[in-house]
Write a structure and sequence with these properties.
There is one protein chain. This protein has 265 residues and is α/β, with parallel strands linked by helices. The protein has two domains: 1-38; 94-248, Vaccinia Virus protein VP39 (Rossmann fold, 3-Layer(aba) Sandwich). It is 45% helix and 19% strand. It contains nine helices and seven strands; from the N terminus they run αααααβαβββαβαββα. The chain has a seven-stranded mixed sheet with strand order 3-2-1-4-5-7-6. α6 (124-133) links the parallel β1 (114-119) and β2. The longest helix is centred in the N-terminal third of the chain and has 20 residues, at 19-38. It binds S-adenosylmethionine. The site of S-adenosylmethionine has 18 residues, from α4, α5 and β2.
Length: 265
Protein backbone atom coordinates (compact mmCIF):
# COMPACT_ATOMS: atom_id res chain seq x y z
CA UNK A 1 0.00 0.00 0.00
CA UNK A 2 2.69 2.52 1.10
CA UNK A 3 4.83 1.29 -1.80
CA UNK A 4 2.00 1.80 -4.29
CA UNK A 5 1.48 5.43 -3.17
CA UNK A 6 5.21 6.15 -3.36
CA UNK A 7 5.55 4.47 -6.76
CA UNK A 8 2.72 6.53 -8.19
CA UNK A 9 4.25 9.77 -6.82
CA UNK A 10 7.72 9.07 -8.28
CA UNK A 11 6.90 10.27 -11.83
CA UNK A 12 5.39 13.53 -10.47
CA UNK A 13 8.37 14.36 -8.19
CA UNK A 14 10.80 12.95 -10.74
CA UNK A 15 9.89 15.60 -13.27
CA UNK A 16 9.89 18.66 -10.99
CA UNK A 17 12.46 18.11 -8.20
CA UNK A 18 16.25 18.55 -8.44
CA UNK A 19 18.35 15.38 -8.02
CA UNK A 20 19.62 16.20 -4.48
CA UNK A 21 16.06 16.80 -3.21
CA UNK A 22 14.88 13.55 -4.78
CA UNK A 23 17.70 11.65 -3.04
CA UNK A 24 16.79 13.21 0.33
CA UNK A 25 13.13 12.29 -0.16
CA UNK A 26 14.07 8.71 -1.01
CA UNK A 27 16.32 8.43 2.10
CA UNK A 28 13.49 9.82 4.25
CA UNK A 29 11.00 7.37 2.77
CA UNK A 30 13.33 4.41 3.39
CA UNK A 31 13.92 5.53 6.99
CA UNK A 32 10.19 5.88 7.72
CA UNK A 33 9.44 2.64 5.91
CA UNK A 34 11.85 0.63 8.07
CA UNK A 35 10.68 2.40 11.27
CA UNK A 36 7.06 1.53 10.46
CA UNK A 37 7.86 -2.15 10.07
CA UNK A 38 9.94 -2.13 13.28
CA UNK A 39 7.06 -0.77 15.37
CA UNK A 40 5.39 -3.02 17.94
CA UNK A 41 2.02 -2.28 16.33
CA UNK A 42 3.15 -3.51 12.93
CA UNK A 43 4.84 -6.54 14.53
CA UNK A 44 1.46 -7.60 15.93
CA UNK A 45 -0.18 -7.28 12.51
CA UNK A 46 2.73 -9.16 10.96
CA UNK A 47 2.56 -12.06 13.44
CA UNK A 48 -1.19 -12.37 12.92
CA UNK A 49 -0.68 -12.50 9.18
CA UNK A 50 1.97 -15.26 9.53
CA UNK A 51 -0.38 -17.28 11.76
CA UNK A 52 -3.37 -16.97 9.47
CA UNK A 53 -1.34 -17.85 6.36
CA UNK A 54 0.21 -20.83 8.17
CA UNK A 55 -3.29 -22.08 9.04
CA UNK A 56 -4.40 -21.66 5.43
CA UNK A 57 -1.39 -23.57 4.08
CA UNK A 58 -1.57 -26.29 6.72
CA UNK A 59 -5.19 -27.01 5.77
CA UNK A 60 -3.76 -28.42 2.55
CA UNK A 61 -0.83 -30.07 4.35
CA UNK A 62 0.85 -33.11 2.84
CA UNK A 63 2.05 -34.26 6.23
CA UNK A 64 0.72 -33.73 9.75
CA UNK A 65 3.62 -33.28 12.11
CA UNK A 66 5.25 -30.63 14.20
CA UNK A 67 8.47 -30.48 12.11
CA UNK A 68 6.46 -29.71 9.00
CA UNK A 69 4.30 -27.14 10.83
CA UNK A 70 7.43 -25.38 12.13
CA UNK A 71 8.86 -25.42 8.60
CA UNK A 72 5.72 -23.80 7.11
CA UNK A 73 5.67 -21.15 9.81
CA UNK A 74 9.32 -20.19 9.44
CA UNK A 75 9.19 -20.23 5.63
CA UNK A 76 6.16 -17.89 5.64
CA UNK A 77 7.75 -15.60 8.20
CA UNK A 78 10.92 -15.29 6.14
CA UNK A 79 9.06 -14.72 2.85
CA UNK A 80 6.87 -12.00 4.35
CA UNK A 81 9.85 -10.33 6.00
CA UNK A 82 11.65 -10.25 2.65
CA UNK A 83 8.75 -8.63 0.85
CA UNK A 84 7.87 -6.11 3.54
CA UNK A 85 11.51 -5.09 4.12
CA UNK A 86 12.15 -4.15 0.50
CA UNK A 87 11.06 -0.48 0.27
CA UNK A 88 11.10 -0.49 -3.53
CA UNK A 89 9.42 -3.92 -3.81
CA UNK A 90 10.86 -6.93 -5.64
CA UNK A 91 11.33 -6.60 -9.36
CA UNK A 92 12.38 -9.08 -11.98
CA UNK A 93 15.63 -10.99 -11.36
CA UNK A 94 18.27 -11.77 -14.00
CA UNK A 95 17.69 -15.43 -13.22
CA UNK A 96 14.11 -15.14 -14.47
CA UNK A 97 15.36 -13.89 -17.83
CA UNK A 98 17.82 -16.82 -17.93
CA UNK A 99 15.40 -19.61 -17.05
CA UNK A 100 12.56 -18.24 -19.17
CA UNK A 101 15.02 -18.00 -22.09
CA UNK A 102 15.87 -21.67 -21.59
CA UNK A 103 12.21 -22.63 -21.42
CA UNK A 104 11.29 -20.61 -24.54
CA UNK A 105 13.71 -22.65 -26.62
CA UNK A 106 11.72 -25.83 -26.03
CA UNK A 107 8.16 -24.50 -25.93
CA UNK A 108 6.17 -25.84 -28.87
CA UNK A 109 5.10 -23.14 -31.32
CA UNK A 110 1.34 -23.55 -31.38
CA UNK A 111 -1.49 -21.01 -31.42
CA UNK A 112 -2.67 -22.38 -28.11
CA UNK A 113 -0.99 -20.49 -25.19
CA UNK A 114 1.06 -22.77 -22.90
CA UNK A 115 -0.32 -23.07 -19.36
CA UNK A 116 2.59 -22.30 -17.03
CA UNK A 117 2.56 -22.97 -13.28
CA UNK A 118 5.12 -20.81 -11.42
CA UNK A 119 5.93 -22.45 -8.10
CA UNK A 120 7.22 -19.98 -5.49
CA UNK A 121 6.85 -16.95 -7.73
CA UNK A 122 6.80 -14.47 -4.79
CA UNK A 123 4.90 -11.77 -6.70
CA UNK A 124 3.55 -10.97 -10.17
CA UNK A 125 6.91 -9.98 -11.75
CA UNK A 126 7.79 -13.51 -12.94
CA UNK A 127 4.23 -14.06 -14.20
CA UNK A 128 4.20 -10.74 -16.09
CA UNK A 129 7.54 -11.51 -17.72
CA UNK A 130 6.45 -14.99 -18.84
CA UNK A 131 3.18 -13.64 -20.24
CA UNK A 132 5.00 -10.82 -22.07
CA UNK A 133 7.74 -12.97 -23.61
CA UNK A 134 6.07 -16.34 -24.25
CA UNK A 135 2.76 -17.37 -25.71
CA UNK A 136 1.53 -18.38 -22.28
CA UNK A 137 -0.99 -17.99 -19.50
CA UNK A 138 0.32 -18.21 -15.94
CA UNK A 139 -0.77 -19.54 -12.60
CA UNK A 140 1.33 -18.65 -9.56
CA UNK A 141 1.59 -20.58 -6.32
CA UNK A 142 3.25 -19.30 -3.16
CA UNK A 143 2.86 -19.29 0.61
CA UNK A 144 1.27 -15.83 0.36
CA UNK A 145 -0.40 -13.92 -2.42
CA UNK A 146 0.12 -10.35 -3.63
CA UNK A 147 -1.58 -10.86 -6.97
CA UNK A 148 -4.87 -12.47 -7.95
CA UNK A 149 -3.03 -14.89 -10.27
CA UNK A 150 -1.23 -16.38 -7.25
CA UNK A 151 -2.88 -19.15 -5.21
CA UNK A 152 -1.82 -19.61 -1.59
CA UNK A 153 -0.50 -23.12 -1.10
CA UNK A 154 2.51 -25.32 -0.53
CA UNK A 155 4.65 -26.91 -3.23
CA UNK A 156 4.32 -30.31 -1.51
CA UNK A 157 0.53 -30.55 -2.01
CA UNK A 158 -0.68 -28.09 -4.62
CA UNK A 159 -4.42 -27.60 -5.10
CA UNK A 160 -4.51 -28.43 -8.83
CA UNK A 161 -5.62 -31.51 -10.77
CA UNK A 162 -3.17 -34.01 -12.32
CA UNK A 163 -1.69 -33.04 -15.72
CA UNK A 164 -3.03 -29.45 -15.51
CA UNK A 165 -0.02 -27.60 -16.92
CA UNK A 166 2.14 -27.59 -20.04
CA UNK A 167 5.02 -26.21 -17.98
CA UNK A 168 5.89 -26.32 -14.29
CA UNK A 169 8.42 -23.55 -13.64
CA UNK A 170 10.40 -23.22 -10.41
CA UNK A 171 13.10 -20.58 -10.13
CA UNK A 172 14.96 -20.52 -6.81
CA UNK A 173 12.05 -22.06 -4.91
CA UNK A 174 12.84 -25.79 -4.80
CA UNK A 175 15.76 -25.27 -2.39
CA UNK A 176 13.11 -24.17 0.15
CA UNK A 177 11.31 -27.52 0.04
CA UNK A 178 10.73 -29.45 3.24
CA UNK A 179 10.93 -32.71 1.29
CA UNK A 180 12.52 -32.17 -2.13
CA UNK A 181 11.40 -35.55 -3.52
CA UNK A 182 7.79 -34.85 -2.60
CA UNK A 183 7.94 -31.38 -4.18
CA UNK A 184 9.40 -32.81 -7.40
CA UNK A 185 6.74 -35.50 -7.54
CA UNK A 186 4.13 -32.72 -7.27
CA UNK A 187 5.79 -30.92 -10.22
CA UNK A 188 5.65 -34.21 -12.10
CA UNK A 189 2.01 -34.89 -11.18
CA UNK A 190 0.90 -31.45 -12.37
CA UNK A 191 2.81 -31.44 -15.68
CA UNK A 192 0.88 -33.04 -18.53
CA UNK A 193 2.41 -36.04 -20.31
CA UNK A 194 5.15 -34.67 -22.64
CA UNK A 195 4.95 -31.39 -20.69
CA UNK A 196 7.97 -29.52 -19.38
CA UNK A 197 9.52 -28.92 -15.98
CA UNK A 198 11.93 -25.94 -15.81
CA UNK A 199 14.02 -25.59 -12.65
CA UNK A 200 16.78 -23.29 -11.50
CA UNK A 201 18.23 -23.95 -8.05
CA UNK A 202 21.23 -22.39 -6.29
CA UNK A 203 24.24 -24.55 -5.40
CA UNK A 204 27.33 -24.14 -3.19
CA UNK A 205 25.67 -21.76 -0.75
CA UNK A 206 25.07 -21.70 2.99
CA UNK A 207 22.10 -23.79 4.09
CA UNK A 208 19.67 -22.52 6.74
CA UNK A 209 16.26 -23.36 8.21
CA UNK A 210 14.60 -21.94 5.10
CA UNK A 211 17.24 -22.63 2.40
CA UNK A 212 17.45 -26.34 2.89
CA UNK A 213 18.85 -28.14 -0.16
CA UNK A 214 22.10 -27.96 -2.07
CA UNK A 215 21.81 -30.51 -4.89
CA UNK A 216 25.38 -29.73 -5.97
CA UNK A 217 24.97 -30.60 -9.65
CA UNK A 218 22.44 -31.45 -12.35
CA UNK A 219 22.80 -35.16 -11.59
CA UNK A 220 22.34 -34.39 -7.88
CA UNK A 221 19.04 -32.70 -8.76
CA UNK A 222 17.94 -35.46 -11.11
CA UNK A 223 18.52 -38.12 -8.43
CA UNK A 224 15.51 -36.66 -6.63
CA UNK A 225 13.30 -37.56 -9.61
CA UNK A 226 13.71 -41.22 -8.63
CA UNK A 227 11.91 -43.48 -11.09
CA UNK A 228 9.77 -40.69 -12.60
CA UNK A 229 10.67 -40.91 -16.22
CA UNK A 230 11.95 -37.81 -18.01
CA UNK A 231 14.27 -36.58 -20.72
CA UNK A 232 16.70 -33.72 -20.09
CA UNK A 233 16.27 -31.17 -22.89
CA UNK A 234 18.60 -28.44 -21.68
CA UNK A 235 20.98 -28.00 -18.78
CA UNK A 236 23.49 -25.49 -17.50
CA UNK A 237 25.76 -25.42 -14.47
CA UNK A 238 27.47 -22.30 -13.13
CA UNK A 239 29.37 -21.68 -9.88
CA UNK A 240 26.12 -20.58 -8.31
CA UNK A 241 23.25 -22.54 -9.82
CA UNK A 242 22.06 -25.45 -11.92
CA UNK A 243 19.36 -24.92 -14.48
CA UNK A 244 17.50 -27.74 -16.24
CA UNK A 245 14.57 -28.13 -18.57
CA UNK A 246 13.03 -31.59 -18.60
CA UNK A 247 10.43 -33.30 -20.76
CA UNK A 248 8.02 -35.36 -18.66
CA UNK A 249 7.53 -38.91 -19.88
CA UNK A 250 4.41 -40.39 -18.32
CA UNK A 251 2.95 -43.75 -19.16
CA UNK A 252 -0.65 -43.36 -20.29
CA UNK A 253 -2.85 -43.98 -17.26
CA UNK A 254 -5.71 -46.43 -17.63
CA UNK A 255 -8.98 -44.49 -17.59
CA UNK A 256 -11.99 -45.90 -15.73
CA UNK A 257 -13.62 -46.86 -19.03
CA UNK A 258 -10.42 -48.70 -20.14
CA UNK A 259 -10.37 -50.62 -16.90
CA UNK A 260 -14.05 -51.53 -17.25
CA UNK A 261 -13.79 -52.69 -20.83
CA UNK A 262 -10.72 -54.78 -19.96
CA UNK A 263 -12.53 -56.51 -17.09
CA UNK A 264 -15.70 -57.21 -19.09
CA UNK A 265 -13.83 -58.73 -22.01
C1 LIG B 1 13.81 -16.87 -3.42
S1 LIG B 1 12.09 -16.65 -3.74
C2 LIG B 1 12.04 -16.85 -5.51
C3 LIG B 1 11.06 -15.93 -6.17
C4 LIG B 1 11.06 -15.98 -7.69
N1 LIG B 1 10.72 -17.30 -8.18
C5 LIG B 1 12.39 -15.53 -8.23
O1 LIG B 1 13.08 -16.30 -8.91
O2 LIG B 1 12.76 -14.39 -7.96
C6 LIG B 1 11.41 -18.19 -3.17
C7 LIG B 1 9.90 -18.20 -3.09
O3 LIG B 1 9.48 -19.53 -2.80
C8 LIG B 1 8.42 -19.47 -1.88
N2 LIG B 1 8.34 -20.73 -1.13
C9 LIG B 1 9.15 -21.18 -0.15
N3 LIG B 1 8.72 -22.36 0.31
C10 LIG B 1 7.60 -22.66 -0.38
C11 LIG B 1 6.68 -23.74 -0.34
N4 LIG B 1 6.84 -24.76 0.50
N5 LIG B 1 5.65 -23.74 -1.20
C12 LIG B 1 5.47 -22.71 -2.07
N6 LIG B 1 6.31 -21.66 -2.14
C13 LIG B 1 7.35 -21.62 -1.31
C14 LIG B 1 8.77 -18.29 -1.00
O4 LIG B 1 7.64 -17.80 -0.31
C15 LIG B 1 9.37 -17.30 -1.99
O5 LIG B 1 8.39 -16.43 -2.49
Amino acid sequence: MIRTIVKSCIPIFGSVLPKAAKQKLWQGYKFLYVKTFDSAFYQRIFNRRVDSLSKEVLQQAFQQDSDYEAYVNCQIEKSLLMVTRAPQGWGLGERTVGLVGFMQQVLPSTDQPARVLCVGCRNGAELDYIEETCNATTQGLDLFSQDNRITVGDMHAMPFANDSFDVVYSCHSLEHAFDIKQAISEFYRLARPEGIIAIEIPIKYELSDTDRWDVGSVSGLLEHFGSQSHEVLKQETSDEHVRVVIRVRKLARKTTSNVKSASTR
